[in-house]
Amino acid sequence: MEAIAAISTPLGYGGIGIIRISGKDTFKIIEKIFEPKNKENKEIKGYNMKYGKILDSNGKNIDEVLVTYFISPKSFTTENMCEINSHGGPVIVKRILEICIENGARLAEPGEFTKLAFINGRIDLAQAEAIIDMINSKTEKERQASMNQLEGNLSKKINEIQEDIMQKMVDIEASIDYPEYDIEEITKNQLREMLEKVDIKLKEIENNFDTGKLIRDGLKMAIIGRPNAGKSSLLNSILNEDRAIVTEYEGTTRDIIEEFIVIEGIPIKVIDTAGIRNETEDKIEEIGIEKAKEIAKNADLVIHIIDSSKKLEKEDIELLGLLRDKKSIIILNKQDLNQEISEETKEIKQTGKPIIKLSALKKEGIEQLYKKISEMFNLGEINVDDSVTISNERHKEVIKNAQKNVKESLHSIDKNIPVDIIQISIKQILDELGKITGRTVSEDIINEIFKKFCLGK
Fold it and tell me: What is the end-to-end Cα distance of the chain in Å, rounded?
């Protein structure tokens, strides 16, 4: 039989579990294993749901279910499809899947349902990739950007560029086929104009990559400081929970603690590091300190927290030096105690870095920190409404390669190279852009993309 099956909901305990089947023989399999409550109504209608029970090979009732029918080509895969809505226990959904396979279905590979939708022309490759991005989205903005791509915004932009190129390719063919009309010079001028417009459009798409990457991956924010400066207290205040252990003893945090927060719709990975000091006899703490320095080096934003109730020490000054070439914020913590340090303290002021006063223990000043982070990265200005926002490294590479071919084509025109030679690099632009929508992408890349999907999608 020709059908694939998989569990499409996460395995766990819940109200509903869904087993999805797709393929030519889907309805034959359902007929074998499903007994509808209304036995007289055997007609199969698309977008129709029937109530009944799933039976094993011995006729034993496994579960009461609802079966939804989708008739080709009006389904996600464009094939005949059914979705069995059972109770959500893992034992139940696994048993129903086993019964489907026992009756002729094959276990679907990761992402195979979406791959079929792509192969059968229901969606293109960019839209398929948007589905996995949408499933994995961590914020509302990331979901919205993925939805824009799923709706075809990126594909439409790529198709428009390809259409502009194709129209001029017709002129090229004409100049090659009818050289007696001497239209090569006119054709070259038209090509130059077209290529310059294509270059502008490609740059517009490429320029959106940093925004897309920010929406998708967010920012990495490292909290550094001397032991007992209040790093773990700050993390707990940001998360509004006791995530990190806080004591009066120095060196409590020895490993790295990571958590996500969201500011202006952008995910921020907050990393609490070990307190940095020059001397320690504890080997584990020493490893934690080295990790902290490495994380601070690679972070998008460094939060240097200083205990302002104590005088500035040598380690504080050394850490201020680490901030020189980094986007960073200096926090003067423990504002609820008597102050020994202020924003006018020479070593702090001369860094030129933003300074925020707060009390992590009392959770005072946290909103001010959020506001400053938003200002530094212009988070409030990021808008994904109906825009083309790319966050995929594969897409960025394709756009860059297409831009390279555009420049080569323009260079060829400047060198007065014959049109039939120029058309080779212009065709390469089309081939590159086709890799985004899937028109010219290799099977290996397609398989690699769909490996990222979960079973049942």
Answer: 21
